Amino acid sequence: MSKTILVYATRWGATEETAQEIKKVLSENHNIKVDLVNLKDKKKKENRNPDISPYENIIIGISVAKFRWAKEGKKFLKKNKKALSKKKLFIFVSSGGAGSAYQQKNLEEYERLQKKWIDNNLDKWGIPFTSRKAFGGRYVGNHSHLGDNRDWDQIRSWAEEVGGIISNGAEV
Ligand SMILES: Cc1cc2nc3c(=O)[nH]c(=O)nc-3n(C[C@H](O)[C@H](O)[C@H](O)COP(=O)(O)O)c2cc1C
After folding, report:
1. Distance between CA atoms of 38 and 73, rounded to whole angstroms?
2. CB of 63 shorter than 6 A to ligand 1
3. Which atom of ligand 1 is nearest to the CA of 150?
4. How does pLDDT run across 68-124, given as a tens digit for each residue?
5. What's the rounded Cα separation, in Å, for the pair 148 and 150?
6. Percent of the chain scoring above 90 in pLDDT
7. Cβ of residue 99 lying under 6 Å from some atom of ligand 1
8. 4-168 belongs to which CATH class?
9. Where are the domains of the chain?
């Protein structure tokens, strides 16, 4: 069985919870063990630059806020650019904007934001990916939007898709 790591960069925790749910689905429904790494874990400096050489499957989750990616996510992709091109890369973002468009069934806007936050960044660096998804997030503090607009069925359904690809080697 190929090895799987899920690395994530979160600011307020939504990406971490989404990552935990994906890990749960992969473990319970696909018997896939996932090593979970918080790239921003202050107590574990080694997490900032995890060794991905033992892993064939890399899942990365990145928080989107203030019109940009959490910087640890960007650093990880830049540092591992070459190695990643030989891996199966799955990527998701937590974006309140994308979550809101998805909730309102404004799929054109949702697709635009998904491209903006995922494809554009990866294409720019020439990093290919096997599957990608933009999820919602949780607005915190005194942000005018406030609230959680994640769709857990969407999250679990993507995890199922990822599980199928990892187990069968099937492409989307
Ligand atoms: C101050 C602030 C700024 C935000 N800016 C954006 C933004 O520019 N685009 C977007 O799609 N979502 C934005 N969001 C929503 C985030 O995507 C959401 O909070 C998400 O959960 C962030 O992931 P995290 O909780 O893992 O850090 C913002 C949220 C906050 C609190």
Report:
1. 10
2. yes
3. 21
4. 999 999 999 999 999 999 999 999 999 999 999 999 999 999 999 999 999 998 998
5. 6
6. 83
7. no
8. alpha beta
9. 4-168
